[in-house]
Specification:
Elements lengths: L3 E5 L5 H14 L8 H5 L3 H9 L3 E6 L2 E10 L4 E9 L8 H15 L4 E7 L3 H9 L3 E8 L7 E8 L7
Helix pairs in contact: 1-3
Bound molecules: coenzyme A.
Coenzyme A binds next to β4, α4 and α5.
């Protein structure tokens, strides 16, 4: 784990971000509300806009990206944890833990008291990870995307300003 570090992406990183996000969508098509076909069509500006809020993070192992996560403002006082993905070869080493901790730190630093996320039904590795970080199901369920049969459920977690981490 010592070699793995997490950094925020900035607008000039847009091509790297695009490559990692497309790899995530190709690898785990049922885990995300979006699709590879949809995001392959995004123009450069769309990728740049997503990084302008400085709220997308990558994990790197020896300079190679091994994971991605984002956090975006949602309702007042609520931010959404999005886009979590760890390269298959890097799983089971705590990279997901590092990335979730980074989002919780972001929420604390931005005085956002609640972090929400959506996880597809049956995605047990992801749910175990979120539960380990004290997220709990809210009971809210929705289709993964418009017209899909698959469901995703909401989980939330409170963030205290004095929380360690
Ligand atoms: C879900 C996902 C992000 C988890 O990534 P990860 O880096 O493997 O996550 P973790 O850090 O939690 O590690 C997973 C397992 O390895 C274990 N682990 C963590 N650090 C470890 C270490 N240093 N040594 C041994 N095992 C370790 C964890 O305890 C966990 O075990 P468990 O699943 O039996 O509870 C990854 O599987 C993934 O990218 N899936 C596809 C995309 C996806 O589903 N994203 C979520 C959308 S909501």
């Amino acid at each position: 784990m010592q070699t793995i570090s997490v950094r925020v992406l900035d607008v000039p990183d847009w091509a790297l971000y695009r490559a990692v996000r497309l790899a995530a969508l190709a690898d785990a098509p049922t885990a995300f509300a979006s699709t590879l076909a949809r995001e392959l069509a995004f123009p450069e500006d769309r990728w740049r806009e997503r990084l302008a809020g400085r709220n997308q993070f990558v994990a790197e192992d020896g300079g190679e990206v091994c994971g991605l996560i984002g956090v975006v403002p949602a309702d007042p006082g609520v931010a959404e944890l999005v886009s979590l993905w760890v390269r298959p070869a890097a799983r089971g080493r705590g990279v997901g833990d590092l990335l979730v901790r980074e989002v919780l730190r972001w929420a604390r630093d931005h005085d956002v008291p609640t972090v929400r996320l959506w996880v597809a039904e049956g995605n047990e590795p992801a749910e175990r990870l979120y539960t380990r970080h004290d997220f709990q199901r809210t009971g809210t369920v929705q289709p993964v995307r418009a017209g899909a049969d698959a469901l995703e459920f909401a989980m939330t977690r409170s963030v205290r300003v004095d929380e360690a981490g």
